[in-house]
Amino acid sequence: MSTLLSVNDLLVTFPLKTDFPWQKTPLLTAVNHLSFQLNTGKTIAIVGESGCGKSTLARSLMGLTPIISGQILWHGEDVTHPTLKQQRQLCKERQMIFQDPFNSLNPRIPVGEIIGEPLRYMMPELSSAQRQERVIAIMQRVGLSSEQRLRYPHEFSGGQCQRIGIARALITQPQLLICDEPVSALDVSIQAQIINLLKELQETFNLSLVFITHNLSVAKHISDTILVMYLGKIMEIGDKEAIFNDPQHPYTKLLLQAVPVPDPIIERQKPPVCLTDELPSPLNPPSGCVFRTRCAYVMPQCATIVPQLKDLSTGNKVACLLVEES
Fold first, then answer.
1. Would you identify the CATH topology of the domain 3-230?
2. What is the pLDDT of residues 271-283, one digit of tens each?
3. d(Cα 232, Cα 238) in Å, to the nearest integer?
């Protein structure tokens, strides 16, 4: 199986404004030396709390956020800082589905034009009739009728608007879809419909997915690999079954405990989820292990030693001194 996307030691920081010009400009580290690979036709779920750097990672993969250091390989080719020609081709091959289905659509344009707009810039050789034919075909593929192309976004429900966003992303026939929490703003029943639609489209078009979510139950349903982030760093990464059946990092265990169980008896028997402190500021992260201020198993060496990703017998990787001690 070929490797579609490789991310090596990615670093993304943002300089923040200061009150006085002589003050040193503070840097916010959103993605801190992160590495992973994604194979063709597979899905990696990026999981973590709000503020851990998931959306920044997605934007950097799309070329929307400048990368300070590291490397992004696309089919083995370095596209970390693409040329204008490379960027145009990458826009065709990599598309993004946004979190808010309403705000991601222009309210003044009919949805048919919204879906077909990427074709004007990325496939200018197509005629107007050919563009319209593609728009109708992709709308029907995502569960919308051809007559709805003349309507405006405010005439659709949240789930239908997300289907429009999916159709717009698929119109250029991409190889990779980056989904930035695409179901978090939808009802639970609609979430299941959209996730099932994405899985069906993935099988049909052999798509690869980077699926960003804070819901581990959603990640389990759609992903092949799970990457757990905390303050821009990888806490644990590996096969979803191994992570769900035998999580190693204390943060991963807490996230799994927070997943609700449909059975009320089992739910009441679960131990309470308890984080010992507030989420630290990414401007001033803790020394050593960044999770140590909220970890119930913290050790003295956690304050001075930065844990590195360690290979486990399951094939997963975990960054925790407790695992190394064991």
1. Rossmann fold (3.40.50)
2. 666 666 678 888 8
3. 17
